Amino acid sequence: MERTAVRGRLTWRTAAVTSVTRETASVVTIGLDPPDWPGHRAGQHLEVRLTADDGYQAEREYSIASAPGEPLAITVERLEGGEVSPYLTEELRAGDELELRGPIGGYFVWEPGDSGALLLLAGGSGVVPLRSILRHRHRTGSDVPARLLYSSRTLPDVIYRAELDQHQDRVQVSYTLTRSQPPGWTGYTGRINQALLAEVAWPAETRPLTYICGPTSFVETAAAELVGLGYPPERVKTERFGATGGH
Amino acid sequence: MDALDGNAIGGLLIDVFGAEMTAAGSTCATCGATRPVAELVVYRRAPGTVVRCRTCGSVLMVFVTRHGVTSVDLAGLATLSQPGSALSRRTGRDRPACRTSTQIRNNEGIRMSHEQSMSMSDEPQEEPMSMGQPDQEPMSMGQPDQEPMSMGQPDQEPMSMGQPDQEPMSMGQPDQEPMSMGQPHEDSM
Q1: What pLDDT, in 10s, does the model give residues A139-163?
Q2: CB 3.0–4.6 Å: which of A66, A197, B10, B172 could bond A70 by disulfide?
Q3: A236, A147 in Cβ contact below 8 A?
Q4: Distance between CA B3 and CA A232 in Å, rounded?
Q5: Nearest-CA distance from B100 to chain A in Å?
Q6: What's the structural domain count of chain B?
Q7: Which residue among A6, A102, A105 places its CB closest to the CB of B7?
Q8: Would the CB atoms of A240 and B5 count as touching at under 8 Å?
Q9: What beta strand segments (E) does chain A contain?
């Protein structure tokens, strides 16, 4: 039964699933239409709750993939042995219903008024909230220059590749492929490190605003290397989702 | 289990505090490090969530939920500040729906030493408060010699929750033992 939303509280809502779009072999984007959704900010996430026949419930957080003002969508990566993501990526269909609550988060968010060039560092499905930020930047007509460095195992694992490759308008997108590269690959290879960041990232003295999202080890390496390059720690915002991509 | 960060418990913190708290500032009572809650180290293993200092590793916050009731231990925090929010340390007299209490509890080896209950003061209480039972008597189980938390110990940092001019509230016991759950070595990292 739907409850009236109470300000200052998160209430569970039953959302209609409007679409399920396959992004990669293990990743889908789920369009959602929750009743009385209050809107969200770029970079926020929401919680999804599944209830088994015996009443057992499992909750997980997923980053919101859509920009503020767009129809709500999340992007979910299948985790082998997971309780929630296999259902969301393999079983869920348009027309189904999904319990969710949110939006959540006031730290890892970006507003067009925030000053400074944007540096976005994504590890795997950590690209999801950064995609929301890029779409929000585009939709609001922001002219803040932005660079996205996206670390992925292989090229077919890159989420939103067609969309990201279309970016122009002062947005630079770079990929580094850590596991294997297609023939003729001219992008970066290997895990993120200081040499790569020194080449791709804005000079520290320009005081960029940085958002890093990905597996814990990726985030901690990237954040430490940026600070080593002189980035002010208070302008490096991070979000970790564990070892294997829980978002 | 890898460590997460404070972003991952944004929903839990709204349940507990009635406000967005990942952007709130925190101060470790042990080492004095300050950073946003979102940047703290978080271990989640049902039914408990342990939040540690990223600088010294001390336990800052513990949340344990059983039967829909969340017990909250903030003893490792010197300050938790959320400028401009409805959160207030001022209790009873000024904001009737905003309560704090202190109790000593020992439950399954976890010392729940400080419980707080706060909510937006002007909203109906649709759901039961999710933070223990603030009105009950303090109880001590198994640690008869343990000193109760006291408010405003002179040698401790003032508790600041968004109203800089308020009276100090002490929530830190810097020399306490770390909690027995959620320590990094227990996790399969």
Answers
A1: 999 999 999 999 999 999 999 999 9
A2: A66
A3: no
A4: 23
A5: 18
A6: 1
A7: A105
A8: yes
A9: 13-24, 27-33, 45-51, 57-63, 73-77, 97-104, 118-123, 146-152, 171-177, 188-189, 209-214, 236-240
Is B189 a domain residue?
A: no
* Residue A97 neighbours by CB distance under 10 Å: 13
B124 is written with which tokens? 């109906």
- Of A115, A120, A134, the closest CA to residue A212 belongs to A120
To the nearest whole Å, the CA of A102 is away from the closest chain B CA by 8
Q: A108 and B11 in contact by Cβ < 8 A?
A: no
Smallest Cβ–Cβ distance between B7 and the set A3, A7, A107 belongs to A107
Q: Which residues of B touch A4 (CB under 8 A)?
A: 126
Residue A143 neighbours by CB under 8 Å, 6+ apart? A170
Q: What is the ipTM of this complex?
A: 0.92
Question: Cβ(B29)–Cβ(B77) under 8 Å?
Answer: yes
Please tell me whether the overall predicted TM-score, pTM, comes out greater than 0.95 for this model: no
From CA B103, how far away is CA B145, in angstroms rounded?
A: 15
Task: Tell me, yes or no, whether B135 lies in a domain.
Answer: yes
Q: Which of B78, B83, B102 is nearest to B19 (CA)?
A: B83
Quickly state the pLDDT bin for B101 (edges 50, 70, 90). Answer: very low
Write out residues in chain A with pLDDT < 70, as ranges.
1-8, 243-247
Using CA atoms of A48, A132, A210, B8 in order, give the dihedral in degrees to the nearest 10: 0
Residue in A with minimal Cα distance to B25 = A107
Distance, in Å, from the CA atom of A236 to the CA atom of A227, rounded to the nearest integer, reads 8
Residue A194 host element (H or E): helix A194-200
Whether B161 is in a domain gets the answer: yes
CA distance A208 to chain B (A): 19
Query: What domains can you pick out in chain A, each with its CATH number?
Result: 13-104 (2.40.30.10), 118-240 (3.40.50.80)
B21's tokens: 């708290």
Cis peptide before A103 (omega within 30 of 0): yes
